[in-house]
Amino acid sequence: MVSIGDNKSSVSALVNALSNMACDLKGKNKIKLPPIPDLPIPELALLPKEAFYSEKRPHPFKESYGRISGEMIMAYPPGIPIICPGEIITHDIIDEVLLLKEAGSLIQGMEDRELNYVNVIK
Between residues 39 and 113, which one has the greater pLDDT? Predict the structure, then answer.
């Protein structure tokens, strides 16, 4: 992390260290991800704030089509939310999340870390 207390020398040292780490790790533990389709932006049924404060219940993720998500689901890489609270879960979203999960992406944002269940709005 760089702050106002850093100078050109300390920032150069950081950049060099990160560059060396990248070279040392190049090709190691590489995850082969499937091509990410251009998914449409999910339909918003509730504002994220409304969804956050709404009553939720767990629902089997594979059967969550048409439900309103009560939590965020994102995959690393790329680290971009696939669905946010208040958005309607589609078949494409379910398929994409399962594909990324099978490929080794780290799926985050949900209460159930295994994503067997997703919190949906009651």
Answer: 113
- Look up residue 50 and give its two tokens: 């409304």
Instruction: Tell me the C-alpha distance between 97 and 75, whole Å.
Output: 8
Q: Give the position of tokens 């932006």.
A: 41
Contact, 106 vs 76, CB < 8 A?
yes
- Classify residue 41: in a domain, yes or no: no
Of residues 89, 82, 101, 88, the one with CA closest to residue 37: 82
Distance CA 96, CA 99 (A): 5
Q: What is the pTM of this model?
A: 0.71
Same domain for 23 and 67? Answer: no
Domain that holds residue 94: 48-121
Q: Which helix (H) or strand (E) holds 106?
A: strand 106-108
